[in-house]
Amino acid sequence: MNVTTTTACTWTAASDATWITVTNGGSGTGNGTVHFNVAGNTGSLARTGTITVAGQTFTVSESVACTYQIAPTSQTFSLSGGTGSIAVTAPPSCAWAATIDNEDWVTITGGASGSGNGTVTFTAAATNGNKDRNTTIKIATETFKVIEAKH
After folding, report:
1. Measured distance CA(131)–CA(58) in Å, rounded
2. Could you tell me which CATH class the domain 69-148 is placed in?
3. Which end of the chain has fewer beta carbons closer than 10 Å to its terminal beta carbon, N or C?
């Protein structure tokens, strides 16, 4: 961040958050530049901190790093189909949606989208043929495999 002031004016830069570190230009006289580093947010909530230079406040906001997990990661049915559910784990402010890869034999019946933790439910229709088939349900960055197989 650039500091613009009169030639004789001295100043210091200070952060109010441990995850914001002033790395260079923490003090000076006259114009200058303050360099700072923001540590990655590993928590489940967005955060805000400030750097103050000569009584002026600069706000730093950092969103959540959205990570997603699903359980289980696959389900196998007989050729007669069935129903299933997928548990989604994510930070509260992280949105997700469930989509199916161009197949009409699997239908999402609940929880097609959400934020944070949730559950996706689906139905796999019976097959009229006698051969195995599979598809995927994509939830955010994760992939769930649906399989119908002869047992």
Report:
1. 63
2. mainly beta
3. C
